[in-house]
């Protein structure tokens, strides 16, 4: 006959083995871009705003960006993740819709926002400081939501 301690140990061991055998949660993938989707929260003076963002975290994905898209939902965006902070600059080549380009410092603070960028423009749209990420959302959306420089962006890539 097993003691209570032995039965408890067997139960805990069984649960641990069961938990380890479960598959890892699958990432949600955007059907258009094939990129992973993650939640990005912007802490504004009016309260938090959440976007579901496609994550562009390698050079190929960042170069493609939102080119050739004909629309972007109000709660969607693309988060460009730079592995090392850099002085980022964007352009709108082959980008059909106007975007708000939000440049984000390594600590998650918004540095500057290029609002309603001009579709197809090849003029540089620069950050005003070192960036760790850039969030692109539908043009005009930042003003509608009260997103401003100094607001904090919450996502795993920011310290």
Structure description:
- With 159 residues, the chain is α+β, with helices and mostly antiparallel strands.
- It is built from 3 helices and 9 strands, in the order αββαββββββαβ.
- A 7-stranded mixed sheet has the order 6-5-8-3-2-1-9. It has a two-stranded antiparallel ribbon with strand order 4-7.
- The mean pLDDT is 89.
Care to give the gist of this entry?
With 159 residues, the chain is α+β, with helices and mostly antiparallel strands.
For the biggest sheet, the summary is:
7 strands, mixed
Order of helices and strands: HEEHEEEEEEHE
Q: How much strand?
A: 25-35%
Overall shape:
globular
Structural class: alpha+beta
Residue-averaged pLDDT: 89
End-to-end Cα distance, whole Å, is 53 Å
Lay out the secondary structure:
Blueprint: H1 4-21, E1 37-44, E2 47-56, H2 59-64, E3 76-86, E4 89-90, E5 99-104, E6 110-114, E7 125-126, E8 131-138, H3 141-145, E9 152-154
Parallel strand pairs: 2-3
Antiparallel strand pairs: 1-2, 1-9, 3-8, 4-7, 5-6, 5-8
Question: What are the defining features of this structure?
Answer:
7-stranded mixed sheet; 159 residues; two-stranded antiparallel sheet; alpha+beta
